[in-house]
Amino acid sequence: MWNDNESLSDYIDYSYLMKAVTTIIDKDNLLPCSIGIYGDWGSGKSSLMKMIEKKYENEENILVIKFNGWLFEGYEDAKSVLMGRIVDEIINKRTFSEKAIKYAAKLLKRIDWIKVAGSSMKYGMSFLTLGPVGLAGVSLADAMGKMSDGDYEKYIKERQGKEIEDSDESLRNNIQEFHKNFESLIDETKIDKIIVFIDDLDRCSPDTIIGTLEAIKLFLFTKKTAFVIGADERLIKYAVKRRFPELAGENLEIGRDYLEKLIQYPIRIPPLNKIELTTYVNLLFSQLYSVDTDDFELRRNEVINAKSTNGFDFALDQSNISDFFRIGNQEFEDAIALCSQIVPVLSTGLNGNPRQAKRFLNTLLIRISMASAKGIELKKRVLAKLMLLEYFKPETFTDFHDIQAENNGAIPLIDKLETITYGQENAESKDTSEGDEASSEEKILLEDNWIVEWIQSEPKLGKENLQPYFYFSRDKLTISAVNFQRMTPKAQETIRRLLGDSEIVRKSAIKSLNTLSSSEAASVFEALTEKVKQEENLNDSKAFKALFYLCEEKSDLKSQAITFLTKYPDHKLPLIAITLTDRLLRTSNPEALNHLFSVWSKSANENFAKIVRKKIK
Predict the structure, then answer these.
(1) Is 198 helix (H, G, I), strand (E, B) or coil?
(2) Within 13 Å of residue 205, how many CA atoms lie on the same side as its CB?
(3) Rounded CA separation 492/488 (Å)
(4) Phi-psi region of 42 (alpha: psi -120 to 50; beta: other; left: phi over 0)
(5) Which pLDDT band, with edges at 50, 70 and 90, does 470 fall under?
(6) Packed helices 558-567 and 576-585: angle between N→C axes, nearest 10 degrees
(7) From CA 442, how far away is CA 429, in angstroms rounded?
(8) What's the number of CA atoms in the CB half-sphere (13 Å) around residue 63?
(9) Of 71, 235, 458, 540, which is most buried, counting CB atoms within 10 Å of its CB?
(10) With 80 as the cut, is the pLDDT of residue 610 above it?
(11) How far is residue 608's CA from residue 610's CA, in Å, rounded to a whole number?
(12) Which pLDDT score is estimated for 117?
């Protein structure tokens, strides 16, 4: 398996993105500057930032500072934490003259003023833990009265092992003075450049995001500084809108305007296309199974160079992998064959997201390992095919599980669908008998192009015993809530907004549903169905209505909605289900609508059944 942390090894070819960022940082005339590295969750922002950081970390007069606001969230004010971290890093990593100590003392006093004034907290921590403010149980006025520059000079000297000398004059309480002292400190400590990397900002609460951005604004126009901010641009915009609700409006892009003022150079990481994802996945497998493990980094670098040399059409695949790696075992060969099977689906369904692709593969290998511990050998390609169904068609996956449980691991429905689709593909070479005619349930599935392509893909499953494969998928099937871990921040935020109390927010969320990737839409669908199953009364259920809105925007989920509604106890359905289902299916899938209405017309809920019968007439 592979770890899920940021990496210095480039499996994708980020060289052109690195060059774009470092070119800006290296030009002194462009400083101060702010650079936004934007990308979806899991797109590789942290790895790219780590690669850029590596370039500068050993340069003597360049100070590299890493900041992760998410780690500090809930403990202190984001503004003061970031400002304090920058000053503390200068204190820790530079040799101070007496003049520099005085500048730093002024800055620390200003930061603690912001900290105390902003939160009205009472400080009871020790001098060296919190800094000079070690004043237990005192008011804001008392605290600020007792704070002197001498205390801060003592703090710095104790950190650097120097003697204590006389105090300096009090700090003037204004931002302009802060700028001057910060610039003077940089000059006095002989720092040529400060580069601040701010990561995981999109994982923070809106308040922390805004607090961090406000701190950046404070430093932004201070000479010799560069801020590199990694985040999902959409979530930052959402935080800004939350911060300024009185300015919100459909035609007023507050979040966008705010970011454009703050971030001077936006650089966006694009999703991987099919060719790029093929290279990425095959490099992962090469790292895992290659005979030449000792020089993998050398081989990986050769692949990335070949990609740069040969242009956009180069992919590391079955046709050329032996040019770079020695394939000395069957596992490696099987893995490369597996890549060609799953990448076409993952590239679209996961929107070219490298982290989600890696998590998919890790889950696959975990299940194979669990089976091996029980002496059971799972075929990678069979398991992968079932996992694709699990990820993108969760209701059908659950339905297939129930069928195989009653048939000793066999799924006659899959066998029948394979026969029908095989007959459609080979009408000239194979006669289809009347026995091949599809039932209502089969026709519903065959209306879904994704499922048809899945059925037709190799390997065929109709004759396989699938019991062990579903057995090791129990982590999914016995789940009490949706697999939240694999949901992207965007999908999670969509759920929160769809189920929120504000009608305006819910309508806004509905309008954004068409921007979800296939994987995100499937996970949102799964979360909503889980919520519906837990609710006692669906008459006012936001989740139930949101299901239909989602399927209207993402039509490839309609088959899942039909499966869910078919299995849901019809006596518990609200009357609005009739209208919503009619609107969803009347044009696109009238046969499925008739099937559902036929079932519902016999409902134990007589009033519900009566209205359905009128609809049928």
Answers:
(1) strand
(2) 11
(3) 6
(4) left
(5) very high
(6) 150
(7) 23
(8) 24
(9) 235
(10) yes
(11) 5
(12) 55
Tokens of 442: 């089969």
220 alpha-carbon distance from chain centroid:
28
- Is-contact 388 345, C-beta < 8 A? yes
Q: For residue 32, is the peptide bond before it cis, meaning its omega torsion is within 30 degrees of 0? A: yes
Average pLDDT over every residue of 10-15: 92
**Length of the chain measured in residues:** 617
Element (H, E) at 34: strand 33-38
Q: For 192-221, write each residue's pLDDT tens digit.
A: 999 999 988 877 877 788 888 878 877 667
Instruction: Kindly report the backbone phi and psi dihedral angles of residue 199, in degrees, each rounded to the nearest multiple of 5, phi listed first.
Output: -115, 165
CA-based end-to-end distance of the chain: 58
Among the listed residues 523, 521, 555, 519, the one whose alpha carbon sits nearest the alpha carbon of residue 350: 519
- For the cut 60, the answer to whether the pLDDT of residue 248 exceeds it is no
User: Alpha helix (H) ranges present in 94-161?
Assistant: 98-119, 127-130, 140-146, 149-160
For the entire predicted model, the pTM comes to 0.78
CB proximity list for 136: less than 8 A, separation 6 or greater: 122, 123, 124
User: Could you tell me if 203 and 68 are in contact, meaning their C-beta atoms sit under 8 angstroms apart?
Assistant: no
Region label for 94, one of left (φ > 0), alpha (ψ between -120 and 50) or beta (otherwise): beta
- Other CB atoms within a 10 A radius of the CB of residue 224 amount to 18
**From CA 81, how far away is CA 440, in angstroms rounded?**
62
Which whole number is the average pLDDT over 14-35?
94
Q: Which residues contact 569 (CB under 8 A, 6 or more apart)?
A: none
Sheet holding 225-231, edge to edge: 62-68, 193-199, 225-231, 33-38, 265-268
3-state secondary structure of 39: coil
